């Protein structure tokens, strides 16, 4: 992850992104809008981008996963902490 993030992060922000990347995988992180916006310096866009990653495909249908919703909320809380 450190190879792809080109802006300074707080420790909490770094932990939030590590959690996200561990869950979604480095390839998905590399190609994400989240990373593009972050590297452009748009720190404020990260929470809204994290929220988008709360879905799973079940029997060909994309649906919201409560566990992922909770995980993203925890990552956002970390991201926003000082």
Sketch the topology as an H/E string, one letter per element: HHHHEEH
CATH class: Mainly Alpha
Mean pLDDT: 96
Radius of gyration: 13 Å
Strand order of the largest sheet: 1-2
How many DSSP helices? 5
- Strand residue percentage: 5-15%
CATH topology: Lysozyme
Identify low-pLDDT runs: none
Number of domains: 1
Number of strands: 2
Name the structural class.
mainly alpha
Shape: globular
How far apart the termini lie comes to 21 Å
Oligomeric category: single chain
Using the 3D structure, state the CATH architecture: Orthogonal Bundle
Largest sheet: 2 strands, antiparallel
The helix content, as a percent range, equals 55-70%
Q: What does this 3D model show about the protein?
A:
This protein has 82 residues and is mainly alpha-helical. The protein has one domain: Lysozyme, CATH 1.10.530. Helix content is 57%, strand content 10%. The chain contains five helices and two strands. The protein has helices spanning 11-24, 26-30, 33-39, 46-51, 66-80; strands at 55-58, 61-64. Strands 1-2 form a two-stranded antiparallel sheet. β1 and β2 (61-64) form a beta hairpin. α1 (11-24) packs antiparallel against α5 (66-80). The longest helix is centred in the C-terminal third of the chain and has 15 residues, at 66-80. The two termini are 21 Å apart. The model has no long low-confidence stretch (mean pLDDT 96).
